[in-house]
């Protein structure tokens, strides 16, 4: 059946079974005329050579296009889906909400006990999805048919949401570009995982719209010297103080340290294994004597599965629980107002690079790539190299 010609499609008798056109082995595009006699809908069908299954994929009516352009657009979309299925992709469409739930590893309505067991980055994603995705118009949209326009509209809605500065007092501020980046990061990760798992045809819908704002996170590049770090520690509550002190001794992400359990600390070998981090694979960090002494004290009388660091009320640390304490201490200690707990990691990495430690080791300890260390800290090594070369002058 030649479905490319408008005159032929207009003469087709409306029926439930589409009129099919073969595109390839086991690959078809179908057209179902409207009972009103105007236009119709397009469908793609795949015949699995192994199982014999014949999954269908609704393409739509392409009503916004002129009649003579609808066939070409439908074939293009049909081929994309057919190639996706032929490569092992999912034939069952999932929604944006389901993609987010799969990324987190918990449903949107998960109970408190389930949520409390999530890794720090997944807990953060769960919270952000509840705030900005699950109740948004984008949530029920089918991932395979998601468009860049829909994602751009989501981003615009997110940017327009004010940030609560003092929640109880109703004080808000405009959402900064750095906050926008942090809100978009887990959403982008969830959609990329869905693509990797075969639940999406392409990343075209979100690759551009969810691109982070460059240079927005420079506040995390604030360097706090040793005296400033000591001043910060002096103004912190005891529970947050010990947690932050270890961050001053090890270039770890706060979330990674918060996820450490007692069993990950080996006092005999003076090592700490980091198994839950943005870096992905676990790594073992060698510890100096002073750090070993702190971890011994923190793990005393605790079971192997217990958290190494907790608040005074026994709850685990996360960004919502350390943010205000750090902010208050920064103000009291007269430190740069935009200094955060992440500035400590930047400061410790800076010290390691300046001390002359090779960049590979710095990268391994801090849980990032050599390329990223070179990008953000390589200039420090080059400055030292220039100074050393200056001494060669005759």
Give a verbal description of the structure.
The chain is 46% helix and 11% strand. The chain has 394 residues and is α+β, with helices and mostly antiparallel strands. It folds into three domains: 81 residues, Double Stranded RNA Binding Domain, CATH 3.30.160; 121 residues, no CATH class; 171 residues, Intergrase catalytic core (hpI Integrase, Chain A, Orthogonal Bundle). It has a four-stranded antiparallel beta sheet, with helices on one face. A three-stranded antiparallel beta sheet has the order 7-8-9, with helices on one face. A two-stranded antiparallel sheet has the order 5-6. Helix 3 runs antiparallel to helix 5. It starts with 5 loop residues before the first helix and ends with a helix.
What is this structure's SSE topology?
Blueprint: H1 6-10, E1 19-24, E2 27-33, E3 40-46, E4 56-60, H2 67-86, H3 96-104, H4 112-116, H5 120-132, H6 148-160, E5 163-166, E6 171-173, H7 177-196, H8 204-207, H9 226-234, H10 238-249, H11 254-258, E7 265-266, E8 271-274, E9 283-286, H12 289-299, H13 319-332, H14 342-354, H15 359-366, H16 370-390
Antiparallel strand pairs: 1-2, 2-3, 3-4, 5-6, 7-8, 8-9
Helix pairs in contact: 3-5, 3-7, 10-14, 14-16, 15-16
Search tags:
four-stranded antiparallel beta sheet; 16 helices; elongated; Double Stranded RNA Binding Domain; hpI Integrase, Chain A; 3 domains
Concise synopsis of the structure shown:
With 394 residues, this protein is of the alpha+beta class. The chain has helices spanning 6-10, 67-86, 96-104, 112-116, 120-132, 148-160, 177-196, 204-207, 226-234, 238-249, 254-258, 289-299, 319-332, 342-354, 359-366, 370-390; strands spanning 19-24, 27-33, 40-46, 56-60, 163-166, 171-173, 265-266, 271-274, 283-286. It folds into three domains: 6-86, Double Stranded RNA Binding Domain; 96-216, no CATH class; 220-390, Intergrase catalytic core (hpI Integrase, Chain A, Orthogonal Bundle).
């Amino acid at each position: 059946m030649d479905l490319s010609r408008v005159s032929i499609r207009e003469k087709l008798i409306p029926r439930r079974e589409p009129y099919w056109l073969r595109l390839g082995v086991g690959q078809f595009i179908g057209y179902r005329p409207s009972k009103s006699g105007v236009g119709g809908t397009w469908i793609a069908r795949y015949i699995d050579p192994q199982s014999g299954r014949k999954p269908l994929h609704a393409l739509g009516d392409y009503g916004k296009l002129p009649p003579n352009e609808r066939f070409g657009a439908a074939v293009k979309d049909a081929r994309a889906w057919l190639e996706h299925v032929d490569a092992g992709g999912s034939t069952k469409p999932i929604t944006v909400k389901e993609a987010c739930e799969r990324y987190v590893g918990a449903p949107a309505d998960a109970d408190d006990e389930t949520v409390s067991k999530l890794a720090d980055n997944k807990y953060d994603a769960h919270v952000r999805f509840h705030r900005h995705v699950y109740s948004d118009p984008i949530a029920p949209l089918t991932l395979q048919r998601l468009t860049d326009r829909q994602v751009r509209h989501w981003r615009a809605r997110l940017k327009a949401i004010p940030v609560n500065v003092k929640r109880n007092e109703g004080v808000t501020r405009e959402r900064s570009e750095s906050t926008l980046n942090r809100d978009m990061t887990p959403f982008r990760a969830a959609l990329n995982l869905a693509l990797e798992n075969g639940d999406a045809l392409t990343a075209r819908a979100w690759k551009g719209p969810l691109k982070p704002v460059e240079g927005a996170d420079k506040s995390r590049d604030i360097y706090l010297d040793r005296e400033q770090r000591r001043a910060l520690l002096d103004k912190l509550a005891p529970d947050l103080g010990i947690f932050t002190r270890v961050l001053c001794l090890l270039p770890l992400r706060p979330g990674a340290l918060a996820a450490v359990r007692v069993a990950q600390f080996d006092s005999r070998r003076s090592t700490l294994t980091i198994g839950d981090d943005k870096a992905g694979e676990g790594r073992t960090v060698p510890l100096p004597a002073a750090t070993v002494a702190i971890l011994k004290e923190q793990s005393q009388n605790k079971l192997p599965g217990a958290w190494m660091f907790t608040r005074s009320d026994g709850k685990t640390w996360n960004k919502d629980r350390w943010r205000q304490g750090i902010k208050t201490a920064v103000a009291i200690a007269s430190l740069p107002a935009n200094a955060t707990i992440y500035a400590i990691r930047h400061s410790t990495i800076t010290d390691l690079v300046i001390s002359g430690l090779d960049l590979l080791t710095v990268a391994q300890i801090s849980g990032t790539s050599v390329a990223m260390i070179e990008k953000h800290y390589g200039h420090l090594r080059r400055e030292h190299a220039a100074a050393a070369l200056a001494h060669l002058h005759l």
